[in-house]
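Thread title: Can someone regenerate the structure for this chain?

I was given the following input by a collaborator and told the matching structure tokens would be attached. They weren't. Posting the sequence so someone can regenerate them.
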Amino acid sequence: MITKEFVKEKSKYFENLPAQNLLKWVFENYENVGFTSSFSADDISIIHMIKDIKPDALIIFIDTDYHFPETYQLVEKVKNEWDINLKIIKPLITIEEQERKYGKNLYEKDPDKCCYIRKVEPLKRVLEDLDVWITGMRRDQSPTRANIGKVEIHKLPSGKEILKINPIADWTRKDVWKYVHKHNLPYNILYDKNYLSIGCKPCTRPVLDGEDERAGRWAGKGKLECGLHTFTEKE
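Best answer:
Regenerated them for you:
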């Protein structure tokens, strides 16, 4: 397994690697790799790069049961037309079971708990089986992501260490859409309605003029992250 010292020593090297080259390095050096994708424009761009490097690479989609119909339609389209190796993971309990246990609309009363049940816990399970975790995070998305590196070592709650790769950390939103349009990639049509960050339907709204990209997520809840990228400890 790659060491903290190696990551620190090679940080400038990794930072200067274009996304495609970094992904190629990952797949040349590791076998147990997974890309967690929400099928955002960012993630579609990464899937497009990955399938040219390793067509059978593992793509992971967390189905919270709360996604927009447009998101599910895009997932099916990409899965079928690109023939990707897609693994769909779901929470341990259904929405109906969650409502019986916690009451209706848990996402309004306690969004952190809802996100944990429907997103974080499923991800924790799947990461235990991986050595490398690829994400579509970018530094310009929110203040909570401003300092992410392209290559990081994270510790899971179980104590296991995992290599976390953020290949487009240095991209801007403009870079993403330039790539999408250049390669004529499919994307979620909600973007055309000013949904700049698309999550679960009950907790996502269009972004208003002048707002940050992720302002439409959990609006009014004082929350910027669902927990997928905060439950691990960066080494």
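Strands lie at 33-36, 58-62, 85-89, 132-134, 151-155, 161-165, 233-234.
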